[in-house]
Amino acid sequence: MGELLIKEETIPVFFQGQTIAVISRHRNADLMRSPSRLELNYREIAHSLYRMVAEGTFPYPDAIPLFDPLPRVGDGLIRLDTNGVISYASPNARSAFSRLGWGNELESNSLGEVAESLAKTRQDPHEEAMRSSLSGKTLQRVECENAGGTIDLLVMPIVHGTDRVGAIVLLHNVTELRRRERELVTKNATIREIHHRVKNNLQTVSALLRLQSRRIEDSSARGALEEAVRRIASIAIVHETLSNSSEESVEFDDVLDRLLANALELSPRMNEIAIQKQGLVGTLEPRLATPLALVVTELIHNALEHGLSTRGTQLRIIATRDAQSCTISIEDNGVGLPSGFELNSSANLGLQIVRTLTQNELQGELTMVSKDAGTSASVNFPI
User: Fold this and answer.
1) 3-class state of residue 113 by DSSP
2) What share of the chain is helix, strand, coil (3-state, %, to 5)?
3) pLDDT tens digit sequence for 84-108
4) CA distance 176 to 182
5) How far is 255 from 247, CA to CA, in rounded Å?
6) Which of 113, 214, 231, 369 is buried most deeply by CB count within 10 Å?
7) Degrees (nearest 5) of the Cα angle 181, 169, 143?
8) Coil, helix or strand for 165?
9) What topology is assigned to 267-383 in CATH?
10) Distance of CA 74 to CAs 38, 62, 119, Å?
11) Which Pfam families match (predicted)?
12) In whole angstroms, how far apart are CA 355 and each of 128, 138, 302, 321?
């Protein structure tokens, strides 16, 4: 090309017997220098992979999951002969094994034996032996871990026609990544344990209050303690849900089902009332789920105790949600609101709790209206 001598290499890419592309590589021959050992190995490996591409044996079939995430050659490279013995190890590869405690040269040693001698003892008897996995005979992804760190190794066999002529191993030091994963697992387990203990403590408080209520003869005082027990139980349900989940959010529809079941058990008309649920709340952050559980508990109890105490047989819970907000409505076909009812001036403790939690914790809005038959109470809040 003019006065430049260009070295060109082209490699056809086959798919199902047809050429679908061509890989082309160009180099200025005048600038080519005597390559270092690292560069020479890079070139030889590239040539082997190009040949496999031309033969249709690379990329490997059905191997995409093993290449995610994909290590970089610069992170560390090892070449194996047909017996799994290391013929070359890049400086970064030697450094990675040195951090695991290997003090000798890697070359001329079996990679499987080296890794097996460094790896901590594994408890799983079904796991394939480290030595076999790192022999270079098959495509494998293996982690070698000990107190010094963790190395992720991707073993890629090199074939020529039907013969295996060696393997390359790309490795990556994932010590920091695994440390962070373990910290996250520990943190999640700790959070679940905290929720479990909070739930147990709340149940203990609830049991003590229940025992105390049985010893009180004054009906109003006993009723107040029973209401406290019910409210504590609704909070305990949220913590129990969080303790049984690995997620940091609450599946509130499960909580709602349990709140409904608990409320209906306390109703003297439990066999006469039909409950209908419509729509889904979905998952909520704990900061929303806990006050919302209390709000819903109070509104359901209010509907059962006042709206459906003597008349009506239907209780409907309607949930609607979009990207910005959620609304839960509790409707009954009972006696309706008393004449002259004003939500903001109501002396009912349960409604005062609902109003306070809705405004202060949920940053939402509470409405209560009489219908043709019964009452509708709605809570709307941003998510």
Assistant:
1) helix
2) 45, 25, 30
3) 999 999 999 999 999 999 999 999 9
4) 10
5) 15
6) 231
7) 25
8) strand
9) Heat Shock Protein 90 (3.30.565)
10) 10, 25, 23
11) GAF_PdtaS, HATPase_c, HisKA_2
12) 61, 66, 13, 21
